[in-house]
Write a structure and sequence with these properties.
The chain is an alpha/beta fold. The protein folds into three domains: 49 residues, lambda repressor-like DNA-binding domains (434 Repressor (Amino-terminal Domain), Orthogonal Bundle); 131 residues, Rossmann fold (3-Layer(aba) Sandwich); 143 residues, 3-Layer(aba) Sandwich (Rossmann fold), CATH 3.40.50. The strands form two sheets. It has a six-stranded parallel beta sheet, sandwiched between helices. It has a six-stranded mixed beta sheet with strand order 7-6-8-9-10-12, with helices on both faces.
């Protein structure tokens, strides 16, 4: 603790304890300028002994930024985003940054407000999972302000920012190929995202890049298999239990009925599984099911669910490292990082009872 009883330790106190100049102590504690590894270790050790904490407000006034990273995600309750945030915070901690987390609730207006709030807090950089790739004025504003920006999971073509995302188009295409090879023709894709009030599916009008890419992969693979009405089997707006259940009922009541369902996220996948069971369906003999994201529940159902496993924790780690490298001036060119996903075969995919055409 500080030798001056009752007073918080200062940079000068740390410098005296470490036996270095005040300027050296300030550089180490502020994370700027040049200093040796020995000086860094000595100063940090002295700071810990004295219980020194930097004044972030003073630092932001003097340097124009804080040691704070902001992250805005679509739904913090979704395990996908929770693991992404954990990846960000783990890297940030190791590299000397703190993290402020904001939840957009998949609302564009809320996302804009959260970005403004974080900019007012003078964050050193931002990580955002954009809710709408067609409306990005607030993200362009971040870039114009000179604040480093990384988009995670979702991306915006042409935006001058680093991005980290999955191989959604390729993985969806592979999944449809797998199902058609087994004989499936009535394959449905259910997503929470609503593209428009118009029911005609058009991937170019979809606001979320991940869903757009999956739709494109779905339609391309279906076309290769000679399925002409594939677009009519894409069902959007599945953003609550009632909507998901309505979709499942419609698919089972179709003539002929759906034989395979691809769920766009684990929340939809869980509700689809329960709805199929409630209707007395044998999974996978009556209906095959694949869910995006390897959530815990997918391993304990009977049968366990086949999933597309996305390394979301890695998404967060890569995004945080890219952002901090840019904050620290270690990189110039923007980059687009695609992290592959993988199918985990379990017990919910099989050939259909009847090869519907």
């Amino acid at each position: 603790m500080n030798d001056k009883k009752g007073k918080p330790a200062t940079v000068a106190d740390v410098a005296r304890r470490a036996r270095v100049s005040k300027a050296t102590a300030a550089r180490v504690l502020g994370g700027y300028g040049v200093f040796s590894e020995q000086a860094r270790n000595t100063v940090l050790s002295a700071a810990e002994e004295l219980g020194y904490y930097p004044n972030e407000m003073a630092r932001s006034i003097s340097t124009g930024r804080t040691g704070l990273i902001g992250i805005v995600v679509g739904d913090i309750e979704n395990a996908f985003f929770s693991l992404t945030v954990r990846g960000v915070t783990d890297v940030a901690r190791d590299r000397g940054f703190n993290v402020t987390i904001a939840n957009s609730g998949e609302s564009l207006s809320q996302e804009r407000e959260m970005v403004r709030v974080l900019q007012r807090q003078r964050v050193a950089g931002l990580i955002v999972s954009p809710t709408n790739l067609h409306q990005i004025d607030h993200l362009q504003s971040v870039i114009r302000a000179g604040t480093p920006l990384v988009t995670v999971d979702r991306y915006v073509a042409g935006l001058q920012a680093d991005s980290v995302r999955g191989d959604d188009y390729e993985r969806m295409s592979d999944m449809v190929d797998r199902l058609t090879a087994l004989g499936h023709r009535r394959i449905a894709y259910i997503t929470a995202v609503e593209q428009t009030e118009d029911r005609a599916i058009d991937p170019d009008r979809v606001p979320v890049s991940t869903v757009r890419d999956r739709m494109l992969g779905f339609l391309e693979a279906a076309s290769r298999a000679g399925i002409q009405d594939a677009a009519s089997w894409i069902l959007d707006g599945a953003n609550n239990d009632a909507a998901i259940e309505r979709h499942v009922i419609d698919l089972l009541d179709a003539n002929p009925p759906c034989s395979a369902i691809l769920a766009s996220d684990s929340t939809i996948g869980a509700r689809v599984f329960l709805s199929l069971k409630a209707r007395g369906m044998d999974i996978p003999r009556d209906v095959s099911l694949v869910s995006w994201f390897d959530a815990d529940w997918t391993r304990v159902t009977s049968p366990p669910v086949t999933v597309v496993d996305q390394p979301t924790y890695l998404f967060g780690k890569v995004a945080a490292n890219l952002l901090i490298d840019r904050i620290e001036g270690r990189t110039d060119e923007t980059s687009s990082t695609i992290i592959p996903s993988a199918m985990i075969e379990r017990g919910t995919v099989a050939a259909p009872r009847i090869n519907n055409t």
